[in-house]
Amino acid sequence: MTAALSTALFNNGASCGECYRITCDYAADSRWCKKGASVVITATNFCPPNFALPNNDGGWCNPPLKHFDMAQPAWEKIGIYRGGIVPVLFQRVSCYKRGGVRFRINGRDYFELVNISNVGGAGSIQSVSIKGSKTGWLAMSRNWGANWQSNAYLDGQSLSFSITTTDGATRVFLNVVPSSWSFGQTYSSRVQF
To answer: What is this structure's pTM?
Structure first.
């Protein structure tokens, strides 16, 4: 289950991958909330502000509001669909993921743009380093959300990654991407947080 986060929660993309337990606030809106129901979502996108509309009438993602724009299957676990925008209670929780961390390689020659997904534990990433089979460890920078970039020429080399999540846990993914990799491909590890 996924959701887009408002500006107040998105943290310029640093919150991508975080997990939240969301409950419809039945005490505040018993008509549209399912009593006692909750859902765990993964933050996967940004809900942009709409400054042309007031915060209580269409500008749901405007700062300083903390809003989750939830996918319909997630929403219907906690509320009656016709209810529209309802008050929620939320808390950050650990992410539990099946399988290992995934790496999607995009870019071109001297620019590797790596989307890192399926991250358990904290879910969100603090720092990433990349290592080609012919290089040392190179720090990557956050491009946007869960996309990290390197400006090194790593074509034809197997790739390893070192990831530190926002709770301080570090995992090393040695040679997770084979030397035969190509842009546009996703590679799965067997390692998880």
So the answer is: 0.90
